[in-house]
Each structure stands twice: as C-alpha cells, then as structure tokens.
Specification:
The complex is a heterodimer of chains A (343) and B (401). Chain A has 343 residues and is mainly alpha-helical. Chain A is 68% helix and 7% strand. Chain A has one domain: Orthogonal Bundle (ABC transporter involved in vitamin B12 uptake, BtuC), CATH 1.10.3470. Chain A contains 15 helices and 4 strands. Chain A has a two-stranded antiparallel ribbon. A two-stranded antiparallel ribbon of chain A has the order 3-4. The longest helix of chain A is centred in the N-terminal third of the chain and has 31 residues. The radius of gyration of chain A is 22 Å and the shape is globular. Chain B has a two-stranded antiparallel ribbon. A two-stranded antiparallel ribbon of chain B has the order 2-3. In chain B, strands 4-5 form a two-stranded antiparallel ribbon. Chain B starts with 5 loop residues before the first helix and ends in a 23-residue tail after the last helix.
Chain lengths: 343, 401
C-alpha cells in the first residue's frame, strides 16, 4: 500500500509538468487551432528565467579585503551581491535564496510578451496554412529558441536550487498513518504539485467565471459567430496565447530545482506533452490535465523494480505505448470532443 | 531509355553526370587560395551528401507524394545501421550483403510501424510516428543492449566471427576487396581532387535510388499517391482503398532510410542509438522541405545544401571572421564579429533553424520553387499565359491537411 502511494507521489511532479505544458498546448490548439511545436521551448525559456534571475541577484561587487588573506598571502577578494548592499545582509540573502519562487513574478511578463510576439509576428500568418506547415514552422522556431538559449547559457545544465527552507525531504508517510520512513518525499516536489494545481485551477476559473473567459470559450466553440457579434475575438485569442505561454513558463520556472535547466529540456518535454495532449483528447482542457497526471503516475509505476523485472524496459516506453494503444482504440482520446481534429 | 521518356532520360543523364563529377564540383577552389575553406570535396562529406540524399529521396516518396508527415524515419535509419553492422560482424566486411540486409530489415520494421500508424492521418500520424521512433530509440538504449550495445554503439571488433572472411581479407568495409576508405588523389593546377571508393559506391546507389524514385513519380502508383494527398475522401468514393498505397509508400520510404543507414554504417562501421533519435528524423524533414517536397531533385538538393553548409559554417570561427571584417575599425569589428559568430561555428543549428523557418514561411516549395521563380524572372512571358494580376494561378499546396 505504501509502495503504491509512494509511486503515485513520485509520478505527481512529472505529471504536473506534463499537465501544465499540455494545458497550454491545448489552450493554443483550442483557441487558435495551431499545433505549436515550440511549446516545449517556452517551458525551457521559463526554466531559464529562473536561471537568469538567480544570476542577476548574484551579481556582486568585488572588494579587496586587506584584513583577510587567501592561501597565497594576497588580500582576499570578498564578493558582496549588490542586493545585499542595497537591502541589507539578511534581506539580500533571503532574496537570493528565494530566487526561484521570485522568478515566477519575473517570468510572467516575459513569457506573455514572448507569447504576444510569437503569435502576432509568426503564427498569425499560418492560420490558413495546412497543419503540416504550422508544425514545420513552429518546429523551426523551437530549434531557433533552443539554440539562442544555448548560445547564452552554454550546453551544460545549470543547477538552480530551491529555497533552503524547502530543500530536503520530509516523512510524508507519518501523516498518512504509515510507518515512519516508509514514504519520504522531497518538499519541493510537493510544492510543485500544489503550485500546478493552483495554476490549473486559476486557468479553469478564469475561463469559467470571468466575462473574458466566457467570450473565449464561446470563441472556441464558434469563432465566426462570436466575431459577428462585434467582439474582437482575435485579440482575445492572442491574449490566451500569452497566457498559455505564461503557464508553460511558470511550469518551467518551478521545474528548475527539480531538474537543472539545460537547453534541450524543451525538446525532451515536447514529445511527451504532445503524447499527453493526444491521450487526453485534442482540444479538451480537462483531458489534457487528467492525461498529464495519469501518464506521470503510470511512468513512475512502470519504473518500479517489480514491474521492470516482468517487462524489462517498460519504464522507458510506457507513455508511448499507452499513447499508441489509446490512439488506435479510442482515437478521440480520453475526453476528446466529437468533431475536433478527427482527421 | 529504361522506360523513361525523352525529357526524363536527359534529366537522369544530367543527374548522373552531376553525381559523377561531384569531386570536381565540390572542390572548385585551388588548395592554397583563400577560398579553399569553401571546398567541400572530402570523401566523408560527399558520401554524406549522397547518403542523406537517399534518405531524403525516400522521405519525399512518403511526404512529398502522399502528404503524410512522418517524424519517425530516424528509426529506420538506425535499424539499417544496426543490421549492416551485424552483417559485418557475423558474415563478412563486404558491404553488399550488409546493405541488402539493411534494406530488408528496415523494410520489415517499417511495414510493422506503418501498419499501425497509418490507421490515423494528419497530426495523429505525425505524433504516432514520433512516439514510435522515440520508443525504438529508448529501447535501443536500454533493453535491447545485447543487440545494440547500448550507449557504446555497435562496433566491428577483431574477434568477430565473420564466417565468410578469410584471415587475409581486409579489415575494413570493402567491396570485393576494394576498401571503401581508399581514395585516389589527383593534383592538378593547384587543385586537389579526391576520388574515393566509398563515395562512388554511395553515388552509384544514390543514382539507382534516384532512378527508382523517378519511376515511382511517373508511374500510375505515384499518381495514386498524389490522389491520396489531394483528396483521400474522393479517392475512397471512387472505390479505391488508400491504405495499401500509403502503406506501400511508407515501406518504400522506410527501405530508402534503411539503405541510407546501411551506407552510413559502411562508410564508418559504427552504429549508435542516437541515430534513431527523433531530431534526426526532424533533420530529414528539414532537408526535404528546404529542397522542395514533392519534387524529384528537391530532397537531394536540400540534403546537399544542408550537409555542405553545415560543414562550411562549422569551420568558420572567430579568427576567420576577424579576417573577413579586418577592413572595419576595431570597435565596430568586435561587435560585427560577435554578431556573426552567433550564427557560425557552434551556432550552425541556429542558422539552420532560421533558414528553415524562412523557407517554410516564404518559399513553401523550397529551393526548387525558388529556382523556378528566379528562372521565371528571366524568361520572357508568353502573352496568352492567363497570367493576369487579378486571377493569379493557384499554386498547389505541397502538403495535404
């Protein structure tokens, strides 16, 4: 029992990332009808927002301190981050420590801006082109974004730590009435999961309970009629693209402490999140979220030693295998709507 | 000749001529001239152009004719490589059996994958092939290690059985004793032309592959494939089932990919799982689109252009750029060199991505369409062309939805 719970928990953090990316992909697909192969790159850029903010906060003034000497006997260089000189030592240190959560605030405007530029500058011109062209041009864009990041940040993963308060693990099992040390779970993963639930909830609430969201939902159902009612639906869809980009970016920011950001993490997640979208059903938001968590959990179950000993290698391919089976057996996906992208 | 009409025969002859003279064409500059860095006449590069030309030609039979966009062709390339290296290990280092087995194995593999993924079309097909390729790649890395040697890659070792080879026979891939890596240098007028056995072997196979793809393009079968692309529904209303045709196209293109994989292994007897990664499949997509999908020569041109430019761009480093911009004042030059070095050397992939985006956006027909447009600029227009401004002729979209 505790094993099962452990695997479910282990699957949640990856599942959250899948769900967030797939949610953004589905938002873009549902509103604009564009298959965005560059969405993984947006996730990656989000992660690098965290890296950038950490670097900015760590910018330091270097002062020679004659009272201390290094091992050669020269005066030691003392690095003081500017934030510490500006806000005092404690406050500055706390800011640096909390750089990843702070990066969320930093990333939202950046990601929305990138989303706007992408939609207005490039994708706008592809609405009336075949889906294959949309795939190809966003695939090209993904390569370009990834290479730009590689040029500025190098090819190596950059470790980006969580705040000290959330480093390490806690004994989750005790709270649930299991034996101590049966289920040890890292704090940050719990936070990632909670965060993703909040973001997903916020997106759904936004679509459900605001006038703006209502218009967008109406536009998803019948774009032309909404346009005929005198509503500038294109503008709202552009904003939705920005929101989708921001969701992917935030997913990336928070993922940075789990997996050190590197330039190809976007491509790695892209394939998987597409698979997630297809399993959930093209154009279905709840489907994307459900499939994201399901596949994440499935993946972690498949990596159990007991299962690996029966089907060697199953942990590597379980997601793809599931997707293939679902596509063949239930082409619409788990919660796909009738008539959306059915050939 | 050979079942082709007059125009196609001359087209084929031109292609043969161009292929056979590649060592001259890709080595236009003298050895000591400052432009020598633009020479591409190395056996390795020329053979790669031929091999990836074959790969792209095969992909074009599927994507160009039927409009099915597959991202999973790297898997067949990988299967071909593994099959060829196993043949080297078990039977003989002669390349012929290896290449033949590579084609057969990839054919079987693509039949299996095509049978499954062709049940769906459009974006679902793309994602299915993507998932299949990624799955094969992961399996090749993990469980199939006894077959693929995992991360190290499959290599030819001295203690392999090689039952057909005698103790005295060559230790490198050869064609009936003629080593593929051996080449003949012809130095004339300061030029250094290299004639490599491996390249000519690949080139001959590439020509045969080109001939076959030409026959397919001109055949009733090719017409059926075009019908699949333009309107599948109408095709089934006329009582024709599109699936056997698309499956056949898929298998043929898979075999082309396997052939390319086998040749890659023949040039360098090593097969690794990274050849199966989906980004390699993405590369062949880029090649085909860049050259011109649905045209005969386009994919080969695209493969050649990308492999050549990759080689050239990767060689341009800061020093070379400094030399080029030496006429600028120092402060300006620093920035100019910094800017251009983003796109050269390590930054080649960035250039490729930008180039690809531009082509998809502005030139959906690729290099071939670009050539045609430029040609049309210089040709005098006949008067009754119907080419008036109000009703421009619609260009057919190069892919089906």
């Amino acid at each position: 029992m505790d094993q099962i719970l452990l695997q479910i928990l282990n699957g949640l953090d990856k599942g959250s990332a899948y769900a967030l990316i797939a949610l953004g992909l589905t938002l873009i697909f549902g509103t604009l009808g564009v298959v965005n192969f560059a969405h993984g790159a947006l996730f990656m850029i989000g992660a690098f927002c965290a890296v950038t903010l950490q670097k900015i906060l760590n910018l330091s003034s270097v002062v020679l301190d004659p009272t201390k000497t290094d091992f050669l006997g020269n005066p030691a260089k003392v690095k003081t981050p500017y934030v510490e000189t500006w806000f005092g030592h404690d406050m500055g240190a706390a800011l640096i420590d909390w750089s990843v959560p702070l990066a969320i605030l930093f990333s939202i405007p950046i990601m929305i801006l990138i989303g706007f530029i992408m939609e207005r500058g490039l994708i706008k011109h592809f609405y009336h082109r075949p889906h294959a062209d949309q795939i190809l041009v966003t695939f090209g864009l993904a390569i370009v974004l990834q290479e730009i990041i590689k040029q500025f940040f190098g090819a190596n993963p950059i470790p980006t730590g969580a705040p000290d308060a959330f480093k390490g693990s806690f004994d989750f099992g005790v709270y649930m009435g299991f034996d101590p040390n049966a289920i040890i779970y890292p704090y940050w993963r719990m936070i990632y999961f909670t965060f993703s639930l909040v973001v997903i909830g916020a997106v759904f609430a936004f679509l459900r309970f605001t006038t703006f969201g209502m218009v967008v939902r109406a536009g998803m159902a019948d774009r032309e009629t909404v346009g005929l009612l005198g509503i500038n639906i294109d503008k709202r869809f552009t904003i939705m693209f920005g929101i989708a980009a921001a969701v992917a970016g935030m997913a990336g920011v928070m993922y940075a402490p789990i997996n050190s950001p590197n330039y190809h993490m976007g491509m790695d997640f892209l394939v998987l999140s597409f698979v997630v979208v297809v399993v959930g059903g093209m154009g279905s938001l709840p489907g994307a979220v459900l499939a994201g968590f399901l596949l994440g959990i499935l993946e972690s179950f498949a990596s159990m030693n007991e299962i690996k000993s029966i089907f060697p290698g199953i942990d590597q391919i379980i997601i793809y295998l599931t997707a293939i089976v679902i596509l063949l057996v239930r082409p619409r996906g788990l919660m796909g709507k009738r008539g959306v992208m059915e050939e | 000749m050979l079942g082709l009409n007059k125009r196609d025969t001359s087209f084929l002859l031109i292609v043969i001529l161009l292929t056979m003279t590649t060592p001259f064409l890709m080595q236009p500059f003298a050895e000591n001239s400052p432009l020598a860095q633009f020479n591409g006449g190395y056996p390795d590069l020329m053979a790669k152009v031929a091999i990836f030309g074959i790969f792209a030609m095969g992909f074009n039979i599927l994507f160009g004719l039927t409009g099915y966009l597959s991202f999973g062709h790297a898997a067949f390339l990988g299967v071909g490589s593994y099959a060829a290296v196993w043949m080297f290990k078990l039977l003989t280092l002669n390349v012929l059996p290896a290449v033949i087995l590579a084609v057969i194995m990839s054919g079987i593999f693509s039949l299996l994958i095509g049978w499954i993924s062709l049940r769906r079309s459009g974006i679902y097909f793309s994602i299915l092939t993507l998932a299949m390729a990624e799955m094969s790649y992961r399996l090749a890395y993990s469980v199939l290690t006894p077959l693929t040697n995992g991360e190290t890659g499959l290599q030819v070792r001295p203690n392999d059985p090689r039952i057909l080879d005698s103790a005295t026979s060559a230790n490198y891939p050869n064609l009936f004793g003629l080593e593929l890596s051996s080449s003949y240098h012809w130095k004339v007028l300061g030029h250094d032309f290299t004639f490599n056995v491996g390249f000519y072997f690949c080139a001959v196979i590439a020509i045969i592959a080109f001939y076959i793809s030409m026959r397919i393009f001109r055949s009733p079968f090719g017409m059926m494939l075009r019908a699949v692309k333009s309107n599948q529904q109408r095709m089934s209303y006329t009582g024709l089932d599109p699936r056997p045709y698309t499956l056949a196209a898929f298998v043929i293109s898979g075999m082309y990919a396997g052939l390319a994989g086998g040749l890659l292994a023949a040039m360098d007897p090593l097969a690794g799982a990274e050849r199966m990664q989906w980004t390699v499949g993405g590369e062949v997509v880029i090649m085909t689109i860049l050259g011109g999908a649905g045209t005969l020569l386009g994919p080969v041109l695209g493969a050649g252009a990308i492999k050549y430019l990759e080689n050239i761009f990767s060689k341009i480093n800061d020093n070379v750029l400094d030399g080029w911009f030496s006429f600028l004042p120092d402060t300006v030059r620093e920035y100019v060199v910094w800017f251009f070095s983003r796109f050269t050397g390590e930054g080649w992939a960035l250039t490729l991505g930008l180039m690809f985006m531009l082509v998809v956006t502005f030139l959906p027909g690729g290099l071939v369409e670009g050539g045609k447009r430029i040609g049309a600029l210089f040709r005098r227009k006949p008067k009754d062309d119907g080419d008036d401004a109000e009703h421009p002729p619609h260009s057919t979209p190069h892919v089906a939805e």
